[in-house]
Each structure stands twice: as structure tokens, then as C-alpha cells.
Specification:
Belongs to the LysR transcriptional regulatory family. One of its GO terms (molecular function) is DNA-binding transcription factor activity. Pfam families: HTH_1, LysR_substrate. This protein is of the alpha/beta class. It is 43% helix and 20% strand. The protein has a domain of 98 residues: Periplasmic binding protein-like II (D-Maltodextrin-Binding Protein, domain 2, 3-Layer(aba) Sandwich). It is built from 13 helices and eleven strands. Helix 1 crosses helix 3, helix 1 packs across helix 4 and helix 2 packs across helix 3. It is elongated. The termini are far apart.
Length: 290
């Protein structure tokens, strides 16, 4: 039988990207965290961490993290969460992998459920890769663009976040852009190295991909950079409707758009609190997503 203090030490190291911050989170010393990880490895007879910077779970470590997430769900369902300050206050801690644009637009309203208390810990990644956090057992919930379910998990469709290619009038003037072909010598804004939205859209509607790129891993920063004329790129309708109406941004391909389909992933051992949250989010998403 596992000592769950050891599993929570592993979770803390992965979630906090290192032993020092894990120790702060658990209110123990860094050496105590290291000792718990060694004890866990001795119990199962193999490493649970690759001691890189930041540490990464081994396949065995990922299976243990998945197991821990499912146990946390069962404890919550049975009202058995103990030894945790938030649990004593009837607050369910929820670690969630989510894409930045959802977090910057529709999701905060959808997560507001007055009759339930949650403490959210958001892990922000591009929707194309965030499912790996679920596969590795690092999160309770994941919002991503894949409907592929992980072992022990389920998914439900939320809707589509609609994106359009836009730029500021100042940007178009400064770069002498009068037709689609002119875009390929101008800078394009891209969220991060996993983000292929701009590339896929331009390949479909302009037969080429952007090469001159600014990397901007911030949803609001992305919008501000676009308004400032740093580059063109793809933004969701929910972020640009006002700017389009006021003329601050120009739709570069009127009538053309790209829909990113989003799914809510959760564990089969879902607690009543997370079931209520999921149902509320699914209902709320209908008001914002396509």
C-alpha cells in the first residue's frame, strides 16, 4: 500500500517544477522532499523522476501521478480529504491544463459556480499539447483540442473557439501591405513553438506559411502587440469584436476563419464537485463558443 505523503511529494515536485518550491508548498524542508522521493523509488524499485531542470516524471512516475489524481477524486466524492487546509474549509483544489485564449476570454465566467468552492491552479499551454499533462497525471482537468481520451479518463465537447487573421491599420500601412502576398515579408505573431494556428490558416487561404515571426506567449500581450502594430496573426472573435468594430484591427480575410474545437477532459473517478463544475462549464460554453 502506498504512503500518499510520498505521492504528494512527487506531485509537488512536478507541479512546482523543482524540489525547493515543492518544499515550500508542503511546508517541509527540501531534504525531506528528497527523502520522500527516494523512499517512493525504493518502494516501487525504479526512478519516478528524471532529475532535470525542471524535473520530469518517468513513465512509472506518471502512472503514480495518475493514480494520485484518481484517489483525490475518490476522497473528494467520499468527503475524506484530510490533512489539507483547503479541504478543511471545504475548498477543492483543482489543477487544470488550459489554453491561454480560453483563460483570457470565456473560461473565467464559466468556472464561476457560487455554490461550490474551488482553488484553481492553471497550467497554461497551447491547446494542441496540453493533453499530455492529463496523460502524465499532473492535472485533474484538461481543456484541449483533442477528443482522444486518456486511460482512465473521459472527454466532453465544449464547442469551437473561432479565430480570424487580423492586423492594425498602422501595421498594414507601415509594411505596405495591399494584398495577401505582401503578408509573407511582414512579421507574424505566434503564441509559442507549439502554436500552428497562423501557419495552418495561411497555408489554407494563402498557399504559404509565415517565416518572419515574433513569439509572444501571452494572450493579452498578443492582442496588445497586434494593436501596437508589431505583427499580424490569429485572434479569437471573443477578443477582437470591439477592435474590429472601432477599426483598431482589420480582418485580413473577410469571411474566412479557423475554428479550434475544444474538449473538457476529466477522470472517470470524478467527484460530485467536479461533476457540477463540468456540467456548468459545458452549459456556459454554449453562450461563448461556436
Amino acid at each position: 500500500m502506498f504512503d500518499y505523503q510520498l505521492l504528494r511529494a512527487l506531485e509537488a515536485v512536478i507541479a512546482n517544477r523543482g524540489f525547493e518550491r515543492a518544499a515550500q508548498k508542503l511546508f517541509i524542508t527540501q531534504s525531506a522532499v528528497s527523502r520522500r522521493i527516494r523512499q517512493l523509488e525504493q518502494q516501487i524499485g525504479e526512478p519516478v523522476l528524471v532529475r532535470s531542470q525542471p524535473p520530469v516524471a518517468t513513465p512509472a512516475g506518471s502512472r503514480l501521478l495518475t493514480h494520485l489524481q484518481q484517489v483525490i477524486q475518490l476522497e473528494a466524492a467520499l468527503g475524506m480529504q484530510s490533512g489539507d487546509e483547503d479541504a478543511e474549509k471545504n475548498i477543492l483544489a483543482v489543477r487544470m491544463a488550459v489554453n491561454a485564449d480560453s483563460l483570457a476570454t470565456w473560461l473565467p465566467r464559466a468556472l464561476t459556480l457560487p455554490e461550490q468552492k474551488f482553488s484553481f491552479d492553471f497550467l497554461v499551454e497551447d491547446q494542441s499539447v496540453s493533453l499530455k499533462r492529463m496523460k502524465q497525471g499532473e492535472v485533474m482537468v484538461c481543456i484541449c483540442s483533442s477528443d482522444e481520451t486518456v486511460n482512465g479518463g473521459k472527454s466532453v465537447y465544449l464547442g469551437a473557439l473561432r479565430y480570424r487573421a487580423v492586423a492594425s491599420p498602422g501595421f498594414l500601412s507601415a509594411h505596405g501591405i495591399t494584398e495577401t502576398a505582401d503578408l509573407f515579408r511582414a512579421p507574424c505573431l505566434v503564441f509559442d513553438h507549439n502554436d500552428r494556428t497562423q501557419h495552418d490558416f495561411m497555408r489554407e487561404y494563402a498557399d504559404d506559411e509565415p517565416e518572419y515571426i515574433h513569439w509572444c506567449p501571452s494572450s493579452e500581450g498578443f492582442r496588445q502587440a497586434m494593436l501596437a502594430g508589431m505583427g499580424y496573426g490569429m485572434l479569437p472573435d471573443l477578443q477582437i469584436e470591439d477592435a474590429i468594430n472601432t477599426g483598431e484591427l482589420v480582418d485580413l480575410f473577410p469571411g474566412k476563419y479557423m475554428d479550434i474545437h475544444l474538449y473538457w477532459h476529466y477522470w472517470q473517478s470524478e467527484s460530485p464537485q467536479l461533476k457540477a463544475l463540468r456540467e456548468h462549464v459545458v452549459t456556459s460554453a454554449q453562450s461563448y463558443l461556436q
